[in-house]
C-alpha cells in the first residue's frame, strides 16, 4: 500500500474528543434543533437520533425534512466566535504534522469559519494543501461521494494513494464504499493501532453514531500513531 497523500477530518481527529469544544458543539447544535423545531431538548435529541442514519449531517436533515433555509444562522449559533476558548493547546501538533512529510488536506462537514478557528488556534493552517469545508462542497458533505472526491482530486491525488482519517465510522465507511482506504481515529473500543482483519464488537455513542468500522484498514487512538501505522501499511 503506497500512501502519498493524507486526508484528514478536522474535529475530534486532529485533536482528541476530550476537548471541551466537542461537548460545546453538540450542546449548541441540540439547542438550535430544539429551538428551530419548537421541541423540548429530550424530544429533539430523540428525533435527531432517529433521523440521522439517513443523512450525513444535522444540517442536511434540517434542510431536507424541516425546510431550514437560514444556513448562516445555524452556523453562527453552533460555531460562535468564542468557541476557540473550548480548545486545548497542543504544542506538539505542528511539528508532528510537518514530520509526516506528506501532502495533507482537510475535509470537514463544518463551515469554513470553524475550520479557520481550529486551524489558526493550533497554527497549522498553512500545512494543508487545501481545506474542503461544508460550504466549499455546496452543503453536501461526507459521506457523499462528491465531498470525498473533491478533496482527493483537488491536489491531483487519487483514492489509491490517499489515506483518509476520521473519528466517525459513518464517514470512514463512506470513503471505503467508493474504493478508498480509511482509518478510524479515537476511542472506538476495538483494534487500536492494528490493521483490521475481522469484525469486532463495537458500540454507539449517546447520539447514535456508530463507533465501529470493520472495513477500516486500522483503528488508532490518535493521529500520533500515524508514523507506525504507515510503516506497517507500507
Kindly state the mean pLDDT as a whole number? 90
Main pleated sheet: 7 strands, mixed
Ranges with pLDDT <50 over ≥5 residues?
189-209
**Share of helical residues:** 25-40%
Question: Structural class of the secondary elements?
Answer: alpha/beta
The rounded distance between the terminal residues' Cα atoms is 5 Å
Shape assignment: globular
Radius of gyration, whole Å: 17 Å
Order of SSEs: EHHHHHEHEHEHEEEH
For the largest beta sheet, what order do the strands appear in spatially?
3-2-1-4-5-7-6
Tally of helical runs: 9
SSE diagram, text form:
Layout: E1 5-8, H1 20-37, H2 41-51, H3 58-66, H4 71-78, H5 93-100, E2 104-107, H6 112-121, E3 130-132, H7 145-154, E4 162-166, H8 169-177, E5 181-185, E6 194-195, E7 218-220, H9 226-233
Parallel strand pairs: 1-2, 1-4, 2-3, 4-5, 5-7
Antiparallel strand pairs: 6-7
Helix pairs in contact: 1-2
What are the key terms here?
alpha/beta; 9 helices; 11% strand; seven-stranded mixed sheet
Amino acid at each position: 500500500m503506497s500512501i502519498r497523500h493524507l486526508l484528514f477530518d478536522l474535529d475530534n481527529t486532529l485533536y482528541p474528543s476530550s476537548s471541551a469544544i466537542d461537548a460545546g458543539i453538540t450542546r449548541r447544535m441540540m439547542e438550535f434543533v430544539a429551538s428551530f423545531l419548537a421541541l423540548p431538548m429530550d424530544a429533539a435529541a430523540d428525533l435527531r437520533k432517529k433521523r440521522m442514519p439517513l443523512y450525513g449531517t444535522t444540517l442536511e436533515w434540517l434542510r431536507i425534512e424541516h425546510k431550514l433555509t437560514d444556513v448562516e444562522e445555524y452556523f453562527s449559533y453552533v460555531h460562535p466566535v468564542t468557541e476557540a476558548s473550548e480548545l486545548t493547546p497542543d504544542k506538539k501538533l505542528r511539528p508532528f504534522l510537518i514530520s509526516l512529510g506528506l501532502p495533507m488536506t482537510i475535509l470537514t462537514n463544518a463551515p469554513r469559519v470553524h475550520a479557520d478557528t481550529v486551524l489558526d488556534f493550533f497554527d497549522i493552517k498553512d500545512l494543508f494543501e487545501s481545506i474542503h469545508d461544508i460550504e466549499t462542497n455546496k452543503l453536501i458533505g461526507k459521506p457523499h461521494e462528491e465531498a470525498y472526491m473533491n478533496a482527493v482530486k483537488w491536489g491531483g491525488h487519487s483514492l489509491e494513494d490517499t489515506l483518509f482519517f476520521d473519528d466517525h465510522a459513518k464517514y470512514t465507511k463512506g470513503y471505503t464504499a467508493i474504493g478508498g482506504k480509511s482509518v478510524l481515529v479515537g476511542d472506538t473500543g476495538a483494534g487500536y493501532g492494528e490493521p483490521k482483519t475481522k469484525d469486532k464488537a463495537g458500540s454507539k455513542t449517546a447520539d447514535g453514531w456508530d463507533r465501529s468500522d470493520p472495513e477500516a484498514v486500522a483503528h488508532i487512538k490518535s493521529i500520533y500513531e500515524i508514523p507506525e501505522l504507515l510503516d506497517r501499511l507500507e
